[in-house]
């Protein structure tokens, strides 16, 4: 303290450190004073710093690429999961498959033979002939009372069911016990029509191992109890192609079941207790 006259303290001189700082107030339309301070490293006011158009354009393309990657990933992952789920659903039915010959085959009212390719000369292909051979053996062994063959007879010059009919008649199946489904264009149609047109509720289904799980899955889906008997009596030259095609057919089968698809043709109900020759082509009453 500095003493002056009369020992009255004299006021201190105001220094810069004690100067009264101005009160900052926001004025509409103006920025705060500290927002106007100059950046020491750039020398450009913050309020005037803006992103260049090149940077904005680059960011846009980065976001676009990320979005495309996400869409591509979904388009691969989701179908892959669906495909795998369909395989699991259908293949889980393979537990009911019995390899022929076997003592574990129970009697059923009818054995269903699913169609396959026919050669240009009208003879069944090897894969179809093996199905027919097993079915005929089951019939003659008394394990089935009737035989229902289902295949494609919807094209001029191509006829699976009559090729099967001739083969089974030659193998000893009685004409009256042999029923023909001319509209079995695929396995779904064959199983659906067997249940809803021919009234089958219990059957033996004969086809190759790779095909049986799908046939049994579809039989179960339409309300039919079915045993699966495989007819792999020999190696097949196109087995790799058959197996690859089957993986796609399983997906189609699941989709048909999920959406309740209808067969290509329905038709009037047919009683398997009657004479099978009523289902043969018009005018055919004997081999």
Would you mind describing this structure in some detail?
The model is unreliable at 1-5 and 32-41 (pLDDT under 50). The radius of gyration is 41 Å and the shape is elongated. Helix 1 (53-91) crosses helix 6. 38% of the residues lie in helices and 11% in strands. Helix 2 links the parallel strand 2 (108-114) and strand 3. The protein has 6 helices and 6 strands. The protein has helices spanning 53-91, 126-140, 160-170, 187-196, 209-221, 239-258, and strands at residues 97-99, 108-114, 144-150, 178-181, 202-207, 225-230. It has a domain at 97-279: Rossmann fold (3-Layer(aba) Sandwich), CATH 3.40.50. By secondary structure, it is of the alpha/beta class.
List the helices and strands and how they pair.
Layout: H1 53-91, E1 97-99, E2 108-114, H2 126-140, E3 144-150, H3 160-170, E4 178-181, H4 187-196, E5 202-207, H5 209-221, E6 225-230, H6 239-258
Parallel strand pairs: 1-6, 2-3, 2-5, 3-4, 5-6
Helix pairs in contact: 1-6, 4-5, 5-6
Percent helix, as a range, is: 25-40%
What would you say the CATH architecture of the domain at 97-279 is? 3-Layer(aba) Sandwich
Order of helices and strands: HEEHEHEHEHEH
Order of strands side by side in the largest beta sheet?
A: 1-6-5-2-3-4
Q: Class by helix and strand content?
A: alpha/beta
Largest sheet: 6 strands, parallel
**Oligomeric composition of the shown chains:** single chain
Q: Unreliable segments (pLDDT under 50, ≥5 consecutive)? A: 1-5, 32-41
Mean pLDDT: 83
CATH class category label of the domain at 97-279: Alpha Beta
Radius of gyration: 41 Å
